[in-house]
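G., the chain you wanted modeled:
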Amino acid sequence: MEHESAQPASEQSPSTSHLLGTVIGRELRTVVRTRTFYLLTAALAAVVVGITWIGGGYAAGYLPTAVDLLTPLELLVPIVAVAFGYRAILADEQRGELDVLETYPISPRELVLGVYAGRAAGLVAAIAVPMVLAAVAIAVTDTDVLAIYATHTGADSPLLFARFFVLTVLFGLVVLAIALAISSLVSGTRSALGMSIVALVALLFGFDLAIVYGLTEGLIGDDSLLYSLAMSPLSAYRGLVLETTVAVASGTGPQVASPVVSLFGFAAWTVGSLAVAIWSVGR
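Predicted structure as tokens:
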């Protein structure tokens, strides 16, 4: 008797890329249909454009605008990122979709990465809209201030603002991964919101205070401070902006961060958080 032929291609398990594309498409549709995300984007745009206008950054140049926006974005970007991610996995569990997905040939890794990629696309758009508006306002404003500033070493440039934008997006993606991990660990909306608030406080204040405490108590030496800052996503973001955007234009001042170590800190937080989410979904 002849052996049965191989399983038809139409009945074979879908590829990883196909599964990821399906989950990403679902998340993008969720983002597009959720009014809260539009409101968050509009609110962030109002703050960014308002600070740019009131602070005079639109007339002063790209670098002064980045300096004006750094502190507000340190606070606002984590809030927006958490809003995009704190219920991403939890909502699937509450609707019973995780149980349904167990019957499909999709792994926890593919599910989590697909959810993260889809929500990340929405978050990037939410950050890009206000910053592009600010950049356009600067570009269409022709003042003598810009011309004078551009004669200095490390002249003001849209590339500096683009670098600031990229670092802000990376910061948001790190916080989004943390929010996704929280979403996979909790069992209810209230607990997800509560843990997200705790995570925000830790990100915005806790790690910085721990570094300051370690420095004052002698636990962290002056020579290792630059590397210790990478342990906090917020400190890493602030240091990266100051070191790679502000310092390169001024050309003077002490080193305030190690860009390589800070980027490694970003990567460690992102990969570690996604690993926690994958483990939690698969348990």
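Confidence is low (pLDDT under 50) at residues 1-10, 144-153.

Shout if anything looks off.
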